[in-house]
Specification:
- This protein is mostly beta strands and about 190 residues long.
- The chain has a five-stranded antiparallel sheet, with no helix packed on it. A three-stranded antiparallel sheet has the order 3-4-5, with no helix packed on it. It has a three-stranded antiparallel sheet with strand order 6-7-11, with no helix packed on it.
- It is elongated, with a radius of gyration of 20 Å.
Amino acid sequence: MATRTGNQEIFLWTSGSGFTQITNTTVGFNFSSSINSDGTRIAFVSDRDLTPGSPGNPDGNFEIFLASGRRVDLTVRGAGLGPTLINPVTVGYSVQGCGGQEMFLVLNAPAMGIPWSYLNTSGAWVLLPTPLSLITPWMSSGPPDGTYPLFRGTAPAGTYELYLGCDFVSNGTLNIDAGGNVNGVYDHRVVTVP
């Protein structure tokens, strides 16, 4: 797609949030983009030096570049197979492309005295509101790409349901479209501790 300046740039279109510009160059060509099946990576051809020094493209030859989309992954581990875990339990998450974006954490953990609730920026669990668009972020500015811990320890017997998301629009609340779809990326896990 060409910008107002006439440069050929790569954009990613996401339902609910529209276009996100992947490249931003002053001259040159970026073209032949292709996205993988889960929407997390975009390959394209460019003659620009989009990654200076790592290793970069200082000679201006056409090269293939790989850009990553936003992604959130929850990990829940313990002894045992499948969704049934034996204590101790470790819960963590990894993020990609959510730095600076609002992050939301929702939990249903009746065995811990936490019915469907979200975690606010003060670290308090708040019962889910109606409508869900009133949920406020857990983090107003998500962390850099990486892996982070959420919980490690002994969990009481019960079933736990977690949602972790990265919002595409930072406005202080969870963004949900008219169809009930979250305007961002999220991951969901259901686990049982016997």
